[in-house]
Amino acid sequence: MAMEAYTSKYPDKIHTDLLSDARQTCYKARDAFYACLEKESHIKANEIAAVGLLYPVQCKKTREFYEKVCRRTWVTHFERKYCTKKRALQTLLDDNESKKAAGVYV
User: Fold this and answer.
1) Is 38 left (phi over 0), alpha (psi -120 to 50) or beta?
2) pLDDT range class, residue 65, cuts 50, 70, 90
3) How far apart are the first and last CA of the chain?
4) Which of 75, 90, 89 is nearest to 33 (CA)?
5) How confident is the model over 7-45, as pLDDT tens digits?
6) Where does this chain mainly localize (predicted)?
């Protein structure tokens, strides 16, 4: 209630402290979700996220909290970034394996 009175009194003021707190909360939720993904990576993923990211049911609660505290566009952005990094790492690992199989050592 006090915040509504303050924001209605100063409608053009950007509340950077509130934005910063929300951003930090989002980052913590994101980190918790991706930590769960890494921890449970040995389990078959059966839940699907926005950009096709699959995750195990054990991470569902952290995923729901992540979606609750972060903007949808941020969630999509972070997922795309995560998937890109995972694909790049897998490509690098696959290239190294194929070179080893061919007898080429880097």
Assistant:
1) alpha
2) very high
3) 64
4) 75
5) 556 666 666 666 788 899 999 999 999 999 889 877 777
6) mitochondrion
CA dihedral over 24, 29, 34, 40, signed as positive or negative: positive
> Which amino acid, residue 44?
K
Closest CA to 63 of 90, 54, 103: 54
Amino acid at 15: H
Instruction: Give CA–CA dist 26/67, Å, rounded.
Output: 9
Query: What are the DSSP calls for the chain, one per residue?
Result: -HHHHHHHHSTT---HHHHHHHHHHHHHHHHHHHHHHHHTTTSPP-EE-TTS-EE-GGGHHHHHHHHHHS-HHHHHHHHHHHHHHHHHHHHHHHHHHHHHHHT---
Predicted model pTM: 0.66
